[in-house]
Design goal:
This is Dihydrofolate reductase. The protein has 4 helices and 12 strands, in the order ββββαβαββαβαββββ. The chain is an alpha/beta fold. It has one domain (about 5-190): Dihydrofolate Reductase, subunit A. A hairpin with a 2-residue loop joins strand 11 (about 175-180) and strand 12. The longest helix is centred in the first third of the chain and has 13 residues, at about 45-60.
Length: about 190
């Protein structure tokens, strides 16, 4: 089985969006470079960021997100983001009315069920939790192997926290990656066991 990561862009004060779910300038780094990050032509990053992010994206088999993220993105219109093969959505509600049952989205009702389904789908590829409440719950449950964050030079002051509502201490190892891109600092930590 592949490793389980938690990943998102965040502000220097630890938020992934403001109180209204707007990431604002957190994604500025994704459009400030010269190197296309995907086929859309919209995402363009520095060469340094490309060399770090693209190989990671290519290793991710499944992303796990909460229903809130699914809803505010309109389910990515039925196409998983960043070229990911599948999305597992943690929710206590069924798929939306009219949802295409053939879309590569899987709805489960717990963090444990999400990891089980994601690992089944991903095989030896990476299972990625979106940061926020669902990712924080996975960290608290001891399910996260690695924490990745793209830190943008912005202070929100309040909003949606990177680690969600985690209220206990969790130790990470020293960062094993620290890369400065344009308008971003890429960090990677292994979770201390």
């Amino acid at each position: 089985m592949g490793k389980v990561t938690m990943y998102a862009s965040m502000s220097v004060d630890g938020f992934i969006a403001d109180e209204n779910d707007d990431p604002g300038p957190l994604f500025e780094w994704l459009t400030r470079g010269d190197v296309p990050l995907d086929e859309s032509g919209f995402l363009k990053v520095s060469q340094t960021s490309f060399d770090y992010v693209r190989p990671y994206w290519d290793q991710v088999g499944v992303t796990i997100a909460g229903r809130h993220v699914f809803d505010i993105t309109d389910g990515w219109d039925g196409t998983p983001p960043s070229g990911i093969d599948h999305v597992v959505v943690v929710t206590h509600r069924p798929a939306p009315d009219g949802w295409d049952p053939e879309a590569p989205f899987h709805f489960v009702d717990s963090i444990d069920a999400a990891v089980t389904k994601a690992q089944e789908l991903a095989g030896d590829r990476i299972v990625e939790f979106a940061a926020g409440d669902v990712g924080g719950q996975a960290l608290a449950a001891g399910l996260i192997d690695e924490v990745r964050m793209d830190v943008a030079p912005v202070v929100f002051g309040s909003g949606k926290r990177y680690f969600g509502s985690v209220h206990a201490q969790h130790l990470l190892e020293d960062p094993d990656v620290v890369i400065q891109g344009t308008r971003v600092l890429h960090l990677r930590y292994q979770v201390r066991r």
